[in-house]
């Protein structure tokens, strides 16, 4: 009888220990705002106490799905990372409150997510892509003492400069007749016209957004584009694909004069065929106090898909040297 009880206690101990070590990778995080409390979705992949990367997706209003390419690279290098749908995005709450959609709100949201995930200056690596890059820079300018490192992927430090590059460099590379037709829809603000969208998808996206034939785009990227929260995107980014023309705080966003305030290790990732100017992305890395630049010679705005070898080799090398 004594032996049977001992076995029973041993089994109970083992079961309890295993239960404590197995945790759900999905974590729903409550976010407090001036307009109420809401929930955002996160998911942890991997386990590393010193390398924890929080991914900030683009949009605004896109979602984590197009980051799925990271699953083919980070786990092999023992890099822990987190998917995160920002408030208003697919798996998170979507409050119908226009005043919520500001840079300031999203910065505070990231800080609440950081605290809830237990990320600290000893392990917290923030990677923002596109709009997420803007958010990452703004977060660092306010909260860099909580960061181990900041990575800005495919984003420049000035939206007015981005708009100028899109309209006066990239747009002029299009066939003049195609550009004329695109401009005719934009002139009357007919941005949702199927012909307009078709022209953009056929002639602009394959050159500068992702250099993969549209019918071969990865399902995760297609889903991310299909599920974008258009009201948020429209308010902040604006309807045109040639630059950012939405909310004034975003279309006038320019932190070129403040880059030297960023002191944490910094990586800027740019691509040869990006919607953003790779020259300016390299320049940004030289303006911060401790910056590096990674160039993807075959890539565009989604270089994590169309120039994966260069993108992930450089990114992983940077993280492993922190």
What's the SSE blueprint?
Layout: H1 2-21, E1 26-33, E2 36-45, E3 52-56, E4 80-85, H2 103-117, E5 124-129, H3 131-143, E6 149-153, H4 159-170, H5 176-187, H6 194-208, H7 219-226, H8 230-236, H9 248-251, E7 266-271, H10 278-287, E8 291-296, H11 303-306, H12 308-320
Parallel strand pairs: 3-4, 3-5, 5-6, 6-7, 7-8
Antiparallel strand pairs: 1-2, 2-4
Can I get a quick summary?
It contains 12 helices and 8 strands. It is of the alpha/beta class.
Count every helix, treating DSSP H or I runs of 4 or more residues as helices. 12
> Can you summarize the main beta sheet?
8 strands, mixed
Tell me the structural class. alpha/beta
CATH class equals Alpha Beta
The oligomeric state of the chains shown is single chain
Rg result = 21 Å
CATH topology: Rossmann fold
Q: How many DSSP-defined strands?
A: 8
Q: If you average the pLDDT, what whole number results?
A: 91
What is the helix fraction of residues, given as a range?
40-55%
- What CATH architecture would you give? 3-Layer(aba) Sandwich
Any low-confidence stretches, pLDDT <50, length ≥5? 1-22
């Amino acid at each position: 009888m004594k032996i049977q009880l001992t076995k029973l206690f041993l089994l109970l101990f083992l079961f309890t220990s295993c239960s404590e070590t197995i945790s759900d990778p999905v974590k729903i995080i409550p976010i407090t705002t001036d307009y109420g409390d809401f929930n955002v979705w996160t998911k942890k992949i991997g386990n590393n106490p010193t390398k924890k990367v929080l991914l900030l997706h683009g949009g605004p209003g896109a979602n984590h799905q197009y980051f799925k390419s990271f699953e083919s690279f980070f786990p092999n290098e023992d890099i822990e990372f987190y998917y995160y749908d920002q408030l208003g995005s697919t798996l998170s709450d979507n409050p119908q409150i226009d005043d919520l959609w500001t840079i300031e709100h999203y910065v505070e949201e990231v800080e609440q997510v950081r605290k809830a995930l237990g990320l600290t200056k000893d392990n917290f690596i923030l990677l923002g892509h596109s709009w997420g890059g803007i958010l990452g820079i703004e977060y660092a300018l306010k909260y860099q003492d909580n960061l181990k490192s900041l990575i800005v992927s495919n984003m420049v430090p000035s939206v007015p400069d981005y708009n100028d590059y899109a309209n006066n460099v990239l747009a002029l590379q299009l066939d003049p007749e195609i550009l004329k037709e695109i401009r005719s829809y934009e002139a009357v603000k007919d941005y949702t016209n199927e012909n307009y969208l078709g022209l953009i998808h056929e002639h602009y996206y394959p050159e500068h957004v992702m250099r993969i034939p549209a019918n071969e785009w990865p399902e995760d990227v297609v889903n991310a584009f299909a599920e974008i929260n258009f009201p948020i995107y429209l308010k902040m980014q604006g309807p045109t694909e040639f630059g950012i023309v939405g909310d004034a705080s975003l279309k006038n966003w320019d932190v070129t004069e403040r880059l030297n305030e960023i002191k944490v290790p910094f990586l800027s990732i740019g691509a040869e065929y990006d919607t953003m100017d790779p020259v300016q992305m390299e320049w940004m890395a030289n303006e911060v106090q401790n910056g590096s630049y990674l160039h993807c010679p075959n890539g565009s705005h989604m270089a994590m898909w169309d120039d994966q070898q260069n993108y992930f080799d450089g990114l992983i090398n940077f993280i492993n040297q922190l």
